[in-house]
Amino acid sequence: MSDQAGYSRRDEVERADEELLAALGYKQEFKRAFTPLEVFGIAFSIIGLLPSIASVLFYAIPNGGGPAMVWGWAVASVFILLVGMSMAELASAAPTSGGLYFWTYSLSSPRWRNLLCWIVGYANTIGSIASVASIDWGCAVQVMAAATIGSGGSFQPTNAQTFGVYACVIITHAVICCLGTQVLARLQTVYVVLNVLLCLAVIIALPIATPAEFKNTAKFALWDFTNLNGWPNGYAFILSFLAPLWTICSFDSSVHISEEASNAATAVPWAIVWAIGIAGLLGWAINMSLAFCMGTDLQALYNSDQPMAQIFFNSFGQKGTLAIWAIFVLVQYMMGSSMLLAASRQAFAFSRDSALPFSNWLYRMNGYTKTPVNTVWYDAMLALALGLLVFAGDQAINAVFAISVTGLYIAYSIPIAARFIGDNDFKPGPFTLGIFGLPVAIVSVSFMFFMSVVFFFPTTPNPAVEDMNYTIVVLGGIMILSVIWYYFPKYGGVHWFTGPVANINAKSVESSTRDSDEFDKRNLKQNSRVDTTEVP
Known about the structure:
It is a multi-pass membrane protein. By secondary structure, the protein is mainly α.
């Protein structure tokens, strides 16, 4: 009896998900294999706390040192949570893989909805691909850091060697993301467990293992502001925000698997909020531990190939560092596969609405795995191309980290603002902020706009040509090209793009609802008969 009731409940949730998706205009094409825990898992695994902090520690150390790592993280985490809450409210109302650009179209005024939908779709696409590139580049750098530590410092990788490792990481991720939905869903639980265990191990073990000469006083760790780049202290502190902003980012990944999630209207928004909240607290504890155990020679850390690897080497020695670093690399590798998974779903949704080049080829579901294999390889190859920026200099490849934040913040801010500015009849889902929706949205959009401008500035004042910040060049160039294509005479999107294109009609929705009602009636009768026979 209980098994049958459980099956009925699961079936009921699945039907409700399909009906909500149909009401948004789309037929069910994916298998809904992600449980609420696994939906949370994909957002949390992409955040990948410890490896992510390791990848961007070079932003915090020269822009404040310990105080920036500890207090900068705390301040930025609060704002990031507000952004996530605004997004969660939209995700609950319309849980679809298109997510951000779908909401933009639905909530914007008719005069602007097509253009804004187009801009958000491309900003989300390039931001997601940049996230894949930055995560996988961080993984490649960590692999090379392990090689350097293992060789006792005699091995110094070249850019070409690091790029070779980067290419291998991306290609293997593409292979993994072509697997079936059920396999990909089960992997998320493994990713979450490894992430949390690694964080707790470092938070506890690092202070215990660190020699006395590398332990810092509370004054140095929490209050002595170290400015190595030359900007005024206040602005340098703000620049250090890139570390938490890049780490706790891409939480829209949960949105992009909405069509593969069970009870999506509830699971997706809470996955976003919980992932940001837990990451904020654990990340603050990690940064606190690092600030007290990194020693006082911050210039040496900043000049090292991998600052966190150097901190670990000072505390754990060569063998201990290699053991921990192996898990680091594994978790970072898992982050990359989850990010490519989410990015491919966003590209699939955007191509479903014919907005991407080669949309006819991209909008295809593999008959064997029932996953969009073409969009997986499309995103992987574009991420591989972004990695070529390393041959233009260190600042060029570092721009990929900033693009993954600024590109996504453009995509995040427009639908959040459109909800209150556009001509729409927004109906909240199960997750709602109520009267706090507007003030939270104002703070969220203002913060994202401000930080996007900040990240277009170079890391040091009066930089040489090779030290310029290339974020505006790469992101701006791509966005300008997308707008040019939109307004291109005769062939541009303005002539044919109409926003999200429904691939299911109202009659199908009504039929689905009638079928569901009939199923419920049959199921009720069946359960009634069973109950009757069980009564003595």
